[in-house]
What we know:
The structure is a homotetramer. The first copy, chain A, is α/β, with parallel strands linked by helices. Chain A folds into 2 domains: 2-114, NAD(P)-binding Rossmann-like Domain (Rossmann fold); 123-282 and 309-328, Dihydrodipicolinate Reductase, domain 2, CATH 3.30.360. Helix content of chain A is 37%, strand content 25%. Chain A is built from 9 helices and 16 strands. In chain A, the strands form 3 sheets. In chain A, strands 1, 2, 3, 4, 5, 6 and 7 form a 7-stranded parallel β-sheet that branches. In chain A, helix 4 packs antiparallel against helix 9 and helix 7 crosses helix 9. In chain A, 56% of the residues are buried. Chains A and D meet through strand 8, strand 9, strand 10, strand 11 and strand 12 of A and strand 8, strand 9, strand 10, strand 11 and strand 12 of D. Strand 13 of chain A pairs antiparallel with strand 14 of chain B, so a sheet runs across the interface.
Amino acid sequence: xxxxxxxxAGFIGTVHAANLAAHPGVQFDLVYDVxxxxxxxxxxxxxxxxxxxxxxxxDPDRVDAVLVASSTDTHAEHLRRAAxxxxxxxxxxxxxxxxxxxxxTVAYVRARQVPAMMAFNRRFDRDYAELKATVxxxxxxxxxxxxxxxxxxxxxxxxxxxxxxxxxRDQAVHFFDLARWISGAxxxxxxxxxxxxxxxxxxxxxxxxIAAVTLRLATGALVQIDTSRRTGYGYDERIEVLGSNGMVExxxxxxxxxxxxxxxxxxxxxxxxxxxxxIKPTYAATLDHFxxxxxxxxxxxxxxxxxxxxxxxxxxxxxxxxxxxxxxxxYPGA
Amino acid sequence: xxxxxxxxAGFIGTVHAANLAAHPGVQFDLVYDVxxxxxxxxxxxxxxxxxxxxxxxxDPDRVDAVLVASSTDTHAEHLRRAAxxxxxxxxxxxxxxxxxxxxxTVAYVRARQVPAMMAFNRRFDRDYAELKATVxxxxxxxxxxxxxxxxxxxxxxxxxxxxxxxxxRDQAVHFFDLARWISGAxxxxxxxxxxxxxxxxxxxxxxxxIAAVTLRLATGALVQIDTSRRTGYGYDERIEVLGSNGMVExxxxxxxxxxxxxxxxxxxxxxxxxxxxxIKPTYAATLDHFxxxxxxxxxxxxxxxxxxxxxxxxxxxxxxxxxxxxxxxxYPGA
Amino acid sequence: xxxxxxxxAGFIGTVHAANLAAHPGVQFDLVYDVxxxxxxxxxxxxxxxxxxxxxxxxDPDRVDAVLVASSTDTHAEHLRRAAxxxxxxxxxxxxxxxxxxxxxTVAYVRARQVPAMMAFNRRFDRDYAELKATVxxxxxxxxxxxxxxxxxxxxxxxxxxxxxxxxxRDQAVHFFDLARWISGAxxxxxxxxxxxxxxxxxxxxxxxxIAAVTLRLATGALVQIDTSRRTGYGYDERIEVLGSNGMVExxxxxxxxxxxxxxxxxxxxxxxxxxxxxIKPTYAATLDHFxxxxxxxxxxxxxxxxxxxxxxxxxxxxxxxxxxxxxxxxYPGA
Amino acid sequence: xxxxxxxxAGFIGTVHAANLAAHPGVQFDLVYDVxxxxxxxxxxxxxxxxxxxxxxxxDPDRVDAVLVASSTDTHAEHLRRAAxxxxxxxxxxxxxxxxxxxxxTVAYVRARQVPAMMAFNRRFDRDYAELKATVxxxxxxxxxxxxxxxxxxxxxxxxxxxxxxxxxRDQAVHFFDLARWISGAxxxxxxxxxxxxxxxxxxxxxxxxIAAVTLRLATGALVQIDTSRRTGYGYDERIEVLGSNGMVExxxxxxxxxxxxxxxxxxxxxxxxxxxxxIKPTYAATLDHFxxxxxxxxxxxxxxxxxxxxxxxxxxxxxxxxxxxxxxxxYPGA
Lengths: 334, 334, 334, 334
């Protein structure tokens, strides 16, 4: 039984809380949030205790691990606290908005040797995991090209976008991680181009709402990512891997199985309305993996270093957006 | 908040227990089972109390409703107890193996006016509910033909089959209910023919493991049901409704979204391995409806009478299996 | 090179004419029709000659085979003429409206040993041929249940229906043949029930426009056929074969590959508008097989006997429509 | 009736010949090829005459139009001959391997005002035409992103690739045209990156066998093209258009409709083996459009200028492959 505390009781925090409470291998006792009310609500719903002093969380006598789902600017601090306390940590992305500070944090945690895992939950999507297993089995041969589609239904509020770090760091970063993970190869160069078509005002702070990104892998294989903030038809994700002797895809999901036939038309169910409906089961699966790793003593994966590398790709992509050329990826400390 | 007690802590009882515990509008305090151990296990898992005296369940000061998931031969008794105690009841099918006794039970409960609902959970399947709404909207015109497929992956044990009441009463009865519900019309005649192909020994006690059933509705519309105990490829359900100006189907489910392409072939995910993976979400949805009905004071649906009518169709189907002719359906008390 | 003459220059005659003209192994010189104009038009389009005396067709010095696509009541006569002349014959169904006369005709042709083939063209549908090959390979085990759907888009004119022989003999007969062919087993009993929902007036002459038919095979396997004269959404055919360890289906065709996604909906292409768009390629494939058989000296298949047997099933189905019971199939001469 | 002569009797010439012969609005009398035997074979098969002197083709007393399907290096010459003779022309791509010479040729033909059309046959694919109509209808809003997939089954012979002009000019050019046509916008910049993964030797002459291309349109919309010479699973094409309020796709084709279900798997038909099986019907549809244009006097489309513009994009793409940056597209004469 792993005693896991929760840091952060916002929307994603409540999702994690429900999974912690329902997990048969987890004892979920403590919740912390800067907003005491939010922490208290979450604690009450699941029979846990809300603590007001963050030190109570990082108490190795009471907790084995911490799940960090607090606001982005506090991730690095909580990672360091966990390292200092010698408790394991499962952390939402990113490690830190600044790549250098993120790299320092990873080095700090690594030196203290606590088990640490990035919550890149899409790796634990049932279909993506099967796609990855298919690629690893050699059934499609050597990876030649990966296509990733990541499209959100509606533009987030302008206030959010202004501080989000931009489409590459905020939205595409999950798919940079998927590209590395699926191919098992590092990214050597990135080309990105984008536009502000849904909301021209975001161009004022240098952001895009639609972008086409091309990654070149060390093997010579290529990756195409298309990413959009606004579809008009719901949330849309898909992955396709072309190999040297076959192809495998995880196709877009439909939100139901009903088809109506009329003259000339078959009207089927469309996409899920939002990202949460689509990827909700991945949160529990991510937690499962983390708990299994703690139980067996295996290092959990993806590691903080994976988080750092995805972030380094996002930095190169952001540079390419303005340079108009393929940019080399520089991995910190590599 | 509805205080709902659980009667029966077998496999389906544990499914109901988890849903009762997770439902925000339900207070789940009491569990009863003839096997005290089973009751205790379920109670412990969800912070409820196992009672050993069934009278403690039927106490209107402590419970508002009872969910009956005990063995088939005790359903009628629990329905009567609930009626006597004046508590609402959600009951697994059938009411009673004997149609006459079932009819008496329904009359008994009706006279005491407690809210009572049959747990025909397939009505609450997301896709079937949408299919029904499409039919009701008039989008496909008047119902002309319904096709229902119900195929289990593997033959249940012979010992179970021997006491199951036969394929019509045990397996097809859910689909007899769906046919009535979707069409909004009663069944006037049934033709059924079947074989024992997977297990010839079940022919010795007059049962079938594969059957083709044809229902004729009062409107002249037709229903085809194919039902099999053993597929060799997993659990398979589908429904198709042909109307006077269109068609709507709830197609078979696939257990994932990954496709591998090789020379000449696209290898996709197949069916769910068993019925439970396929219809698991319907149990929570059935409970939702029951709680909503209690909250609003509306009569819950499907009613016990719906249960009785599905059973009457099963009786006629069983007669047809041996008579070789279309048999009229006699509804008790109608 | 086979010299094949065409008898009948109506709509299907023109389809056959184009295929005869395009076939590299066929010399297409002669056309006959009771309507000289129609014969002349077809002949001109393909560089053939229209003959006015039917005797000129049955001249073994000029023709090796005759393709009979004339009106139903003349099929038997042309079959006998071909037999007398010693030329091969490919004949549209039925052999004769009356089963006894059909049986006499088959015996007559058989005695004279000319190669003769029924144009049950659905056997040559690309998908159905692959489905049959899959069944024959044993990949789904022993056949347990076959589902056949046959639905036309619009009710034919009442004047046609009045002389068509009824839905069993006119529409379902193709699917009776498919059931025998796919299963490799003969039909021992038939239950059929139907209604006149699209056009109540056809009930006056004992016909149906929607019917559910159940066949029992000699092996104990079952066949369900649903057949409708009017769908409101185009032409719809599909086949599904459940075996003892798997299932194979030839799914309904869509008329295109374009999907539009909007909020909650994916709007796809529907069915083909009519039967001809769906099964057009089967005519050329049927002719291919006939020509191959003539070239190699193998007996062409399906035989006239296959035609007779499908017709005998239709007779039993028609009896069942009024008797309300499962009717045994009596094969003439068997 | 348009009298159309054929220039070129290679593989594609024979496809065009069959379509010319079968077209009810075309009189197909003359064939020319540098190889008299090939011309003779084609002529014989369709009742036409093979001419040995190319001048006989460009005789306005005998022909209204010429279909040019000869070897690439002779296209420009035949376009000029047609212009001189005042006969219309339907020409396979490209106009000329050299963009400047191609531009001169277009100017030459334009000055003489003969109807001239590029045989970009994918515009006439049934699904692509419907996708284009959907976009034009406004049903998905303003075009934001187009995804095009173009993947051949097997690497062509090295000798062919050496003189093909490279993957951008030879394979991707069709999709550059589709991007312009679907969006109705011109391409302003191109980024391309590629590798020689299937056949490293082609890197020696600067070619790629897999490439990812990103186009930026004048509207700010983006286009992603992935193109591969070798899939290992057959021929694969698809198009997806994301608009400001919806999406439309023309999905990949399957070569049949049969599905076999086994434990955990649904084994479906895969892709067509080669490009010809997939796009065969587009040749007849292209000819239809050309003949319609001649009949009505409307200018046929796509024009030679469309051919020139697709070629200019290919030139920029080829430059980008080596420069590693987004290259502006320079349209000749624009």
